[in-house]
Amino acid sequence: MLSVPEDHPRYESLLLRERLVRGFEEGLVAKAGLIAHGRGEAFDYLLGEETVEWADKATLAAAHCMYRSDNPVLSVNGNVAAVVPELVGELSMLGVGVEVNLFHRSDERVNRIIEFLEEHGAVGVLGGDADMLIKDLSHDRAFVSREGIYSADTVMVPLEDGDRTVKLRDLGKTVISIDLNPLSRTSKTADISIVDNVVRVFENFIGYWKKIDRDSSFKLDVYNSFDNEENLRKMEEKMRGVSFEGG
Ligand code: PTJ
Predict the structure, then answer these.
(1) Span 53-215: which CATH code?
(2) What residue spans of 5-52 are helical by DSSP H?
(3) 246 or 122: which carries more pLDDT confidence?
(4) I need a labelling partner for 91 at 20 to 30 A (CA). Which of 80, 121, 207, 222 fits?
(5) 126: which DSSP letter?
(6) pTM of the entire structure?
(7) Which of 69, 57, 35 is nearest to 159 (CA)?
(8) Is the CB of 200 under 6 A from ligand 1?
(9) β-bridge mates for residue 133, sequence order
(10) pLDDT band at 247 (very low <50, low <70, confident <90, very high)
(11) If you measure from the C-alpha of residue 77 to the centroid of ligand 1, how many angstroms do you get, rounded to a whole number?
(12) What does the domain layout of the chain look like in residue ranges?
């Protein structure tokens, strides 16, 4: 049982923390993942812990982009698995490939995460094999699966740590990032940078995917005219414009 009282004004945020801590205790989340989450919380606070207009547009553009891809793959790390396992499961059921790919890699943690995701409805989770290597990437994120990230045309990278986005783009892949920090190297280098909490992104993304599946022209103009530089500028302006008076 989670120990967060439901009437707490920051219930959702505390619930996420609780999931992270539990994920750490169960061997899903890396120690550094707890720190990364705290950093994300600070940025989310600046957004009022809600999805703002440009993040919503970016998520819609991402849904169109992934929907139109031949082999779209979601890269999952310890944090993502711990906070949104059910949504990862739902995405896998919609046809998005799911691959566990870790910065602090150990076979034990990869397998534990795969098992956890499967318990929450995910199908065909890749990453246990990781039989291919992304060249010139000097950490364990370089180990990828042949049918997954290695052959993907579009890769979604939530809570990423920087240099892999550039390498994936160098390989000709389209990269969609999810990172609450609009100034991170990942956000700055992705094709579509969603600056929002991964929990809200996945919920929105799934909703948009289903609408696009019913009508592939659904708000297609947003995707066609999407400008990532403008997106990042607007997100940064939004955060810089926060007033701390009375906060
Ligand atoms: O499980 P592993 O071994 O693959 O390790 C995963 C971590 C997260 C430890 C690793 O990727 C890492 O060190 O990431 P960074 O460099 O700390 O970057 C994480 C980024 O995600 C930061 O810019 C945070 O602001 C952002 N972030 C944290 N929580 C969320 C988030 N973005 C969206 N939603 C969140 N819930």
Answers:
(1) 3.40.50.12640
(2) 11-25, 31-46
(3) 122
(4) 222
(5) B
(6) 0.95
(7) 35
(8) no
(9) 143
(10) very low
(11) 9
(12) 53-215
